[in-house]
Amino acid sequence: MKIRPAVRFVYGLIDTAASQENSLVGVLTLGIPTQVAVLTSVFGRLTPSTNRA
């Protein structure tokens, strides 16, 4: 069983200078963590938001 987080935004990094064809060189996904501890373990001084958009 794979656990997949709730992805809110997805961005692709495309290299337009390497060749005639644009190539995907990276991906960034942003989402809302399921637990507050996920956020505060990485960013200890960060205060989690209570707003859910």
3D architecture notes:
The chain is built from 1 helix and 2 strands. A two-stranded antiparallel ribbon has the order 1-2. The chain is elongated and about 45 Å long. The chain is mainly β and 53 residues long. The longest helix is centred in the C-terminal third of the chain and has 7 residues. 13% of the residues lie in helices and 34% in strands.
- Which segments are poorly predicted (pLDDT under 50) over 5 or more consecutive residues? none
Distance between the termini: 28 Å
Helix content: 10-25%
Strand and helix order = EEH
Profile the largest sheet.
2 strands, antiparallel
Number of strands: 2
- Large-scale geometry: elongated
In round numbers, the mean pLDDT is 76
| Strand order, sheet with most strands | 1-2
* Count of alpha and pi helical runs: 1
Strand content: 25-35%
Radius of gyration: 16 Å
Structural class by helix and strand composition? mainly beta
Task: Summarize the SSE layout with pairings.
Elements: E1 7-15, E2 23-31, H1 36-42
